[in-house]
C-alpha cells in the first residue's frame, strides 16, 4: 500500500507516518508540502490513498482537490484544522471521501483510513460485474464510469461509489444505513451528507441529458436505482 501525505507541517507528517506503519508495517508513505506538485505525483506513483491538508503554503487544499478529481479517483481523506461544518461539507462536495479534524488521534486516523480503503477495495471488486442500464444511462462497472448516451457523467469517487452500489442492486431500496456503510464506510455519516450526495449525482445525470428520476427516493427509508 502506498499513501501520499500532502502536508507542510513535518510533525503532522511524522505522526501519520508512524500511525500508518504501526498498523501496516509494509505501508509505503511519501509526503509533499507543496500542492502544485501533487497532480504530477499522482500520475507517476499512483498512490492507493491521499491524505490532504487543506492549509498548504502554495495553494488552497480544496482547489487542489478539485484539480485532482479531474485526473484521478484515488481515495482522499482531508485533514483540516477548520473544524466548522462549512469547510467539511465543501470538502465532501469537492470529492473527498472523508475528513479528519486536527488535532486527531492515531486510532481515529486508522479507523478512517481502514474504512476508506475497505470501500475502495469493494468498489474495485465490483468492476468485474459488467454493466447496468436504465434508459439512456449506462453504469459500467468495468471502467467505473457512468454515461448518458456517449457522454461521461463527471462523478467524484464517492458519487461513483454511491451510484454504482445502487445500480448493483437495482430495484432494491438501499436504506440510509446500508448506503452509508457501503459508500462512506461508516453508519455515523449524517443523513444530510447522503442527501446532498444523491442530489449532486442527480444533477450531474441531468446536466448531460439523462433522467435524474433513475434514483428514486423512498422518504424516511432510502434510495433505489430504477433499471
Ligand atoms: Ca498546513
Supply the key terms.
alpha/beta, Rossmann fold, Arc Repressor Mutant, subunit A, 2 domains, 5-stranded parallel β-sheet, 4-stranded antiparallel β-sheet, binds calcium ion
Question: What would you say this structure looks like, in words?
Answer:
The chain is an alpha/beta fold and 227 residues long. The chain is 44% helix and 21% strand. It is built from eight helices and twelve strands. The protein has a five-stranded parallel β-sheet with strand order 2-1-3-4-5, sandwiched between helices. The radius of gyration is 17 Å and the shape is globular. The relative contact order is 0.11. The structure holds calcium ion (CA).
Q: What's the helix and strand layout?
A:
Blueprint: E1 2-6, H1 10-23, E2 28-32, H2 38-45, E3 49-53, H3 61-71, E4 76-80, H4 85-94, E5 98-101, H5 106-125, E6 131-134, E7 137-140, E8 145-148, E9 151-152, H6 157-168, E10 174-175, H7 176-184, H8 191-207, E11 215-218, E12 222-225
Helix pairs in contact: 1-5, 2-3, 6-7, 6-8
The protein binds calcium ion.
Précis, in short:
Helices cover 44% and strands 21% of the residues. With 227 residues, the protein is of the alpha/beta class. The protein folds into two domains: 2-124, Response regulator (Rossmann fold), CATH 3.40.50; 127-225, Arc Repressor Mutant, subunit A (Orthogonal Bundle).
| CATH H-tier superfamily of the largest domain | Response regulator
Gap from first CA to last CA: 36 Å
Please tell me how large the radius of gyration is: 17 Å
Q: Strand arrangement, largest sheet? A: 2-1-3-4-5
Number of helices: 8
Task: State which percent range the strand residues make up.
Answer: 15-25%
Amino acid at each position: 500500500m502506498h499513501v501520499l501525505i500532502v502536508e507542510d507541517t513535518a510533525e503532522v507528517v511524522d505522526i501519520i507516518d508512524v500511525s500508518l506503519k504501526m498498523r501496516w508495517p509494509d505501508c509505503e508513505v511519501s509526503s509533499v508540502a507543496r500542492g502544485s506538485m501533487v497532480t504530477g505525483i499522482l500520475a507517476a506513483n499512483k498512490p492507493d490513498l491521499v491524505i490532504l491538508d487543506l492549509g498548504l503554503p502554495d495553494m488552497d487544499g480544496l482547489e487542489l482537490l478539485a484539480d485532482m478529481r479531474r485526473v484521478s479517483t484515488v481515495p482522499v481523506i482531508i485533514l483540516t484544522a477548520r473544524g466548522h461544518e462549512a469547510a467539511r461539507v465543501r470538502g465532501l462536495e469537492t470529492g473527498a471521501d472523508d475528513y479528519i479534524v486536527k488535532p486527531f488521534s492515531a486510532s481515529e486516523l486508522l479507523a478512517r483510513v481502514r474504512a476508506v480503503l475497505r470501500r475502495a477495495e469493494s468498489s474495485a471488486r465490483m468492476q468485474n460485474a459488467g454493466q447496468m442500464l436504465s434508459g439512456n444511462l449506462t453504469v459500467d462497472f468495468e471502467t467505473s464510469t457512468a454515461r448518458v448516451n456517449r457522454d461521461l457523467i463527471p462523478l467524484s469517487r464517492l458519487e461513483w461509489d454511491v451510484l454504482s452500489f445502487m445500480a448493483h442492486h437495482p430495484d432494491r431500496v438501499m436504506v440510509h444505513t446500508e448506503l452509508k456503510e457501503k459508500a462512506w464506510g461508516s453508519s455515523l455519516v449524517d443523513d444530510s451528507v447522503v442527501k446532498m450526495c444523491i442530489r449532486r449525482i442527480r444533477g450531474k445525470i441531468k446536466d448531460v441529458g439523462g433522467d435524474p428520476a433513475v434514483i428514486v427516493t423512498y422518504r424516511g427509508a432510502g434510495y433505489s436505482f430504477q433499471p
